[in-house]
Amino acid sequence: MKILLKHARSFIGCCSSLNVGRFSRSAANFSTLPPERRTLGQPSHFTHPHLIKINEVTPRISQKEYEGRRLRLLHKLKKEGNKHVVIVNGNELQYMSEDIPYPFHQKNNFLYLTGFLEPNSCLIMEADFNRDHFHATLLVPNRDISRELWNGPRSGVDGALYLTGVEQTETIDNLGEVLGQYLDDDHVIWCDYRDLQHTQMYYQHFRGFLDSVLSNERPVRNLKSLVQELRVVKSESELNLLGEACHVTGEALKQAIPTTQPDMNERALHAILDCECRLRGAQILAYPPVIAGGSRGNILHYINNNQRFDDGDMVLVDVGAEFYGYCADITRTWPVNGRFTTEQRKIYEIVLHVQLACIELCTPGNDLDSIYGVMLHLLAQELAAGDVFVEKLTAKEIYQSIRSFCPHHVGHWLGMDVHDTSTIPRSTKFVPGMVVTIEPGLYMGADDARVKEEFRGIAVRIEDDVMITTKGTGGHVLTTNSPKTVEEIEKLMTPQTSTSS
Fold first, then answer.
1. How far apart are CA 463 and CA 76, in angstroms?
2. 287-322: string of b/e by CB count within 10 Å (b at 16+)?
3. What span, in angstroms and rounded, lies between the C-alpha atoms of 136 and 79?
């Protein structure tokens, strides 16, 4: 013991004479190379040449495209005056425990305009139509040796400038100073005020700035809907990313469907779908998936996913991959044991027939609200012919209560969010480049005395992602690789026996 203590004291003495900071902050962990030759806070051409081309900010989207988005937004402001300042903040890091952060996910309007994927950042854009002057400043966190040791590289001011191609970058510490330039002039201020509240950035910088602006009766306008007007129509690169997200999700479903069996837990199917999406290039699932066995499918946003499948039940799965910022959204319903009962097949094919008819209506000039009305009428007609109810009812009688069997809309916009561009009304007329979901459903409550007993507890939804094209022959379905007909599903779930030659 005395020998051990002697050696310990000797070791402590040696340590006290060393520059410990030199070891904890090694140059190996903090590169001083120029940004084009070092690891940044997000993938770049230097670290991911297989993924990102030169002058791309994010996969398949170039600096030029991001610049075009910013300029289109600024030009939308001209009718409101000649001088404008636009403030768009990014997301802050959120923590799941004392010092363990959740995986970071950038705010979509900020991402749409910059492509910058690091937290605690802000975009300030200035437009002066009198001088034909447009300027974008991106404010980002400084590089920090200590934080990069724990959390990985940051882009810093120089890296953000190199990566995004904006006119100017500043440290986020200067945000108050940058905002102060616009306190005493006549710029119209644009921001998403509700989005700014309850953030650290708001309390440090925005609250005082906005209070001063409003106290001087300066105009402050809401920005959110203007950005979403741009986002609702996708570029070619965006459509490619959406198509990839849809393909990945469809392939994951093809792998997951045959694994379903009685007594399997819903969470196991959740895990399989998550894994299969990531194996095909998705970063995350776009939203918590619905994995609902039996009558739990009647809970529209059931995400507990913690019960077992029963033999003879169906499972309703609503899932989507996120592929470099763009989301898929697919729903499929299938029998746990691989074979539809007569009643399950009847309800399923009613929903399928209605869905196919609605997809045909996804043409320029039409709109989701109009298709929703068609969906309700078709569901009522099909149910009237299907001998589903205890009492004999006409299509007109069924239509009076059809919303109790399908309480949701026929679809929604799709893009960077799964329920994308929420400020754009569903009455907006389709133009080429829009993407929507088409998702009729029928939900028969387990205790619904209006329907025959053998139909009770059945829940079916079928959802595909549809692109509006210039052709007038119906929408282009992006999710065709996911099995949908009864025959396709039963064939997929039939065990394949191999034969040896």
1. 34
2. bebbbbbbbbbbeeebeebeeebeeebbbbbbbbbb
3. 20
The SS3 assignment for 191 reads strand
Give the span between the Cα atoms of 279 and 161, in whole angstroms. 32
Q: In what order do the strands lie in the sheet with 220-222?
A: 168-171, 133-140, 122-128, 83-89, 188-191, 220-222
Q: Which residue, 268, 368, 272, is CA-closest to 308?
A: 268
- Which of 181-195, 375-389, 425-439 bottoms out in mean pLDDT, i.e. has the lowest? 181-195
- Give strand ranges (E) for 192-348: 220-222, 284-285, 290-293, 314-319, 321-323, 326-327, 330-335
- DSSP codes of every residue in 44-61: -TTT-TTT--TTEEETTE
Q: Are strands 459-461 and 441-443 parallel, antiparallel or unpaired?
A: antiparallel
> Counting Cβ atoms within 10 Å, is residue 198 exposed (0-12), middle (13-18) or buried (19+)?
exposed
Residues 349-360: tens digit of each pLDDT: 999 999 999 999
User: Which pTM does this prediction carry?
Assistant: 0.91
Question: Long-range pairs for 92-95 at CB < 8 Å and ≥24 separation?
Answer: 92/119, 92/120, 92/199, 92/200, 92/201, 93/119, 93/120
Residue with tokens 């004291």: 9
DSSP annotation string for 440-479: -EEE--TT-TTB-GGGTT-EEE-BEEEE--SSSS--EES-
Q: What are the E-state strand segments in 223-338?
A: 284-285, 290-293, 314-319, 321-323, 326-327, 330-335
φ, ψ (nearest 5 deg) of residue 184: -115, 20
Residue range 4-15: average pLDDT?
51
Q: How far apart are CA 277 and CA 56, in angstroms?
A: 24
The answer to whether 256 and 272 have CB atoms below 8 angstroms apart is yes
Integer Rg of the chain from CA: 28
Which tokens go with 89? 């903040």
- The DSSP bridge pattern shows strands 326-327 and 314-319 to be unpaired
DSSP 126: E
Give the three-state DSSP class for 227: helix
Q: What are phi and psi of 185, to 5 degrees?
A: -115, -170
How many other C-beta atoms are found inside a 10 Å radius of the C-beta of residue 65?
Answer: 17
Question: How far apart are alpha carbons 432 and 412 in whole angstroms?
Answer: 16
For residue 30, is it left (φ>0), alpha (ψ between -120 and 50) or beta? Answer: beta
